[in-house]
Design brief:
7 strands; two-stranded parallel ribbon; about 325 residues
Length: about 325
């Protein structure tokens, strides 16, 4: 970001109460004319890590040509990548404001590393056992896998998990029924392939949609572009469909606030690599620079709980 010109800032916004400084990226963008929206904001950054490790090559990534070289990516994720990310999150002070989705196989294969993650204060959510897709299993198998993973996570953290992310985002009707039966609080916070690192930044020889040689700056700029557009326009989407996301029946005051959730999905075998983790740190610091303007990092369980409470309030309002 270019250095701030304070006189210019005062001239352009004489009535602004925003504190400025070198870590105020929105302010810098406004000075350059990139952001004109002066509405109040409430943005929840839903940062998460899928600790797939070796399991990524056993379930949805299973292929007859997988070999030890492929599996070594998973070993790197468990022994190196996950701990690099954990150190970064601790350094930034957000380790307890995020969610790790951990397959049962990773819990059992990397117990020391997973224990460090748990001690960071984050939320632990389920992500299958061997990263198996719902459509790879019978209904009975899906039930057995879920029960095993609930047991592993409960023993690990001392409480039952309430969050679930389906491997490869594969959810079917039986998945929802099983999660409801076991008292889960949420099934995924909406994300998509453009909000995650692995597809563009990891080369998986036997996965047709992997790239691996995309410049990290392309992904960094795309994530920032997505955020900036939502910052300016998310309230228009809410107005168009007659709702205010997350508000639960908006009051007049709430209608003046632009709200959205900004999910980021990371993987230790991808974002733990030396040429990627620096980009991740830049994006997270960029987002942290807006914490004074309504941006906050949140665990998925907290976002889900608030959404449920808001829905109950809206129902009472009629």
């Amino acid at each position: 970001m270019p250095e701030r010109q304070d006189e210019h800032a005062k001239e352009k916004e004489p009535n602004s109460t925003r504190t400025s400084g070198p870590e105020d990226p929105l302010r810098d963008m406004e000075l350059r004319g990139e952001i004109k929206n002066q509405r109040k904001h409430r943005v929840r950054v839903a940062l998460s890590v899928d600790f797939d490790a070796i399991s990524a090559h056993l379930g949805t990534g299973k292929h007859p040509d997988n070999n030890m070289s492929d599996y070594s990516q998973g070993i790197f994720a468990g022994k190196v990548g996950a701990l690099r990310l954990l150190r970064l999150f601790k350094k930034l002070g957000i380790a307890d404001k995020m969610t790790w989705f951990i397959p049962g196989h990773s819990i059992e294969t990397f117990p020391a590393e997973v224990e460090q993650i748990v001690r960071s204060g984050c939320e632990i959510g389920l992500h299958g056992y061997s990263h198996e897709g719902a459509y790879q299993m019978t209904e009975e198998q899906e039930s057995d896998v879920l029960r095993k993973c609930i047991d592993l996570a409960t023993k690990l953290t001392g409480k039952k998990p309430i969050g679930y992310r389906a491997p490869l985002y594969q959810i079917r009707e039986t998945t929802i029924s099983l999660l409801e039966k076991h008292g889960f609080g949420y099934v995924e916070i909406p994300c998509n392939w453009y909000g995650e690192d692995e597809t563009p930044l990891s080369y998986l020889p036997h996965v047709p949609n992997s790239h691996g040689y995309v410049d990290v700056r392309v992904i960094e700029q795309m994530w920032k572009d997505r955020f900036t557009w939502l910052w300016e326009h998310a309230h228009e989407d809410a107005a168009a469909d007659g709702s205010l996301e997350g508000s639960g029946g908006a009051s007049v005051e709430e209608e003046q606030v632009t709200q959205f959730i900004f999910p980021i999905v990371l993987h230790p075998d991808t974002s733990g690599m030396a040429h990627v983790i620096g980009m991740v740190e830049r994006v997270l610091r960029w987002l942290q620079g807006m914490e004074g303007q309504g941006v906050e990092f949140c665990r998925y369980e907290d976002i889900a709980r608030e959404a449920k409470e808001a829905a109950e309030i809206a129902k009472k309002r009629g």
